[in-house]
Write a structure and sequence with these properties.
The protein has 547 residues and is of the alpha+beta class. The protein contains eleven helices and 25 strands. The protein has helices spanning 2-17, 31-38, 59-64, 148-154, 159-170, 177-193, 252-269, 291-298, 333-346, 362-367, 398-416, and strands at residues 19-25, 43-50, 52-58, 69-73, 81-85, 106-108, 111-115, 124-125, 131-135, 197-202, 216-222, 229-235, 277-283, 305-311, 323-327, 350-354, 372-377, 426-429, 437-442, 447-455, 461-471, 474-483, 497-510, 513-520, 529-537. The strands form three sheets. Strands 4-1-3-2-9-16-15-17-14-12-13-11-10 form a 13-stranded mixed beta sheet, sandwiched between helices. The chain has an eight-stranded antiparallel beta barrel with strand order 18-19-20-21-22-23-24-25. Strands 6-7-5-8 form a four-stranded antiparallel beta sheet, with no helix packed on it. It is globular, with a radius of gyration of 30 Å.
């Protein structure tokens, strides 16, 4: 009897120790639940892929999690697997034949798990502890403050304008030479109307690639202060399932949605000055092999590129969830996190961060060491009209596109560094009273500094300094007067007194026109007054777009 019990216990222990590789569903599980799963007794190794957790665990753990188990994989351990990202490459179409016959062990959304021995160039071995992708909601929430200026800019996005541009672009058969050329002419005209510096970049492709006259990119440059270049892009060309020029290829989701977002971003930002230059670009021949992105990336100086935001398929909502995937390789991880943070600050998006990517125009920049991220809605693999004649504007969601544009535009403003203060900083005076004037400086945190170079009642020079904050086009400042100093080298800082002087009220009517009102206190013996002033110089180089 004793031997029988010992044998039974040994059998149970062996069963408990037996390992199995399973895929668990962690969609919207939350940070605490995901962390607990990873740290559970019986878990030997794990790897995370978006809304799933691949676990090498013992029988007890797997039994306890049986309701989460999506699949049991016939491999000895996690390292026997490779992960594959599917972007414009689902293996089912004729031009994706290189993936046909692959042994796909598990598939979920845009991820596949394949045997490690059969991995391809862009596949990655699934090392224990590897996070290939994760849902932002499965991480502890950050405390992120919003920026009032950025929020105001996001309010200028006009989704109706985006949809009009989407419909215009999807009205061109951009698979054909004539349709692509017409769409490019239309887009360049829109860039011109926004005041951008427009151009085209032509590129060559191998003779085996039927370019059909679509071997050029359309560019619109918004000049800032030249402190780096931020690229906001999307591909302009489209296709149908058979690459038949005689059939429609409206490409509303893929990718009129992205190009219309590039155009709307340019429209919102055109009247603002940034430290960096912003390049809006719509690429050619993405569908034939990413040729437009490759050509443009190869022509860049990587050290000058602040980032590349590539919007490719941003408006389909197949599951009533506003979920978006941000995909990047190592050079783009910082930009990827900025996008995710701004999604949390300003949008209702559910974000997945993927640290493995392929197959869109951002990839060429990343391969050359530049920071680049693919922004793509998370349901594109299940889009029924993908690469068909039925990819029309009626199939896409205004709400989905609007949220993605808010995230991308907020990140564009943040990286290009909005210099809103430069619209009002400088030297101001009244031409009718040219013997005195004001120096005003607005900083990016909405603080405003003022110095008034003028004269006291007895005719002596008077300098009044003031500090406050700007709200919209108005500012209120507390003012001070310094007395008791002596000319250097006799200057003694201990003798200087800083006395309250009163206050100022500023109203910026345009970037070069200001109304100023001063309210001295009783100590000064000076009367209140007001003046209309003009800006005589612009030391920060912000320019003026109001005239």
């Amino acid at each position: 009897m004793r031997r029988t019990c010992i044998g039974l216990i040994a059998t149970l222990l062996a069963g408990a120790a037996a390992a199995e590789v399973v895929v668990l569903d962690i969609d919207r599980a939350g940070a605490d639940a995901v962390a607990a799963l990873k740290q559970s007794p019986g878990v030997r190794a794990w790897a995370e892929l978006g809304d799933t957790l691949v676990v090498d665990g013992d029988a007890r753990f797997i039994h306890a999690q049986r309701e989460r188990v999506l699949a049991s994989l016939p491999v000895p351990g996690i390292e026997a697997l490779a992960s594959r990202a599917q972007v414009h490459c689902d293996g089912q179409e004729a031009d994706h034949g290189k993936h046909r016959g692959d042994d796909v062990l598990f598939e979920r959304a845009h991820w596949q798990l394949v045997p490690a021995f059969g991995k391809r160039a862009d596949d990655e071995i699934l090392r224990p502890g590897r996070v290939v992708a994760h849902q932002l909601g499965n991480r502890a929430a950050k405390q992120l403050a919003t920026d009032a200026d950025v929020a105001a800019l996001l309010g200028e996005i006009q989704i109706a304008t985006w949809r009009r541009n989407l419909q215009a672009l999807s009205g061109f058969n951009r698979q054909s030479e004539a349709g692509y050329g017409a769409a490019a002419n239309w887009l360049q005209a829109q860039f011109n109307a926004l005041g951008l510096e427009t151009s085209r970049q032509s590129f060559t492709v191998p003779e085996t690639v039927p370019s059909s006259g679509r071997n050029f990119n359309v560019l619109g440059l918004q000049r800032g202060l030249g402190q780096g270049l931020l690229i906001v892009g999307a591909h302009l060309d489209s296709r149908n399932s058979s690459f038949n020029d005689q059939q429609p290829s409206p490409g509303a989701e893929d990718n009129a949605s992205g190009c219309a977002a590039v155009l709307e971003t340019a429209r919102v930002l055109r009247d603002y000055r940034f430290e960096a230059d912003i390049l809006y670009i719509c690429y050619g021949l993405e569908e034939r092999g990413l040729y437009g992105g490759r050509a443009h990336a190869a022509a860049q100086t990587p050290s000058q590129i602040l980032g590349v935001i590539n919007m490719d398929m941003i408006a389909y909502d197949g599951d009533n969830r506003l979920d978006v995937s941000l995909q990047a390789n190592a050079p783009g991880f910082g930009l990827q996190q900025r996008l995710a943070d701004n999604a949390a600050r300003y949008t209702d998006l559910e974000v997945e961060l993927a640290f493995q990517t392929c197959c869109s125009d951002h990839r060429a920049y990343s391969d050359l060491g530049m920071s680049a991220v693919l922004v793509i809605e998370n349901d594109y693999v299940t889009y029924p009209q993908y690469h068909t004649v039925d990819d029309v504007a009626a199939n896409v969601s205004d709400t989905m596109a609007h949220e993605v544009m808010k995230m991308s535009l907020a990140t564009t403003v943040e990286i290009a560094r909005l210099r809103d203060g430069s619209r009002h900083s400088g030297y101001w005076y009244d031409p009718a009273q040219s013997g005195h004037g004001f120096q005003v400086e607005l900083q990016d945190n909405n603080q405003v500094f003022l110095t008034w170079y003028t004269f006291a009642a007895n005719g002596e020079r008077l300098w009044v300094t003031a500090i406050g904050s700007v709200n919209g086009n108005t500012a209120t400042l507390n003012a001070y007067e310094a007395t008791g100093g002596s000319f250097p080298p006799a200057f003694d800082p201990t003798q200087v007194q800083v006395l309250p002087w009163g206050s100022f009220e500023l109203t910026f009517n345009t970037c070069d026109r200001m109304h100023i009102r001063w309210l001295p206190n009783a100590r000064t013996g000076l009367p209140a007054g007001e003046m209309n002033a003009v800006r005589s110089s612009d030391p920060l180089g912000g320019g003026c777009d109001d005239n």
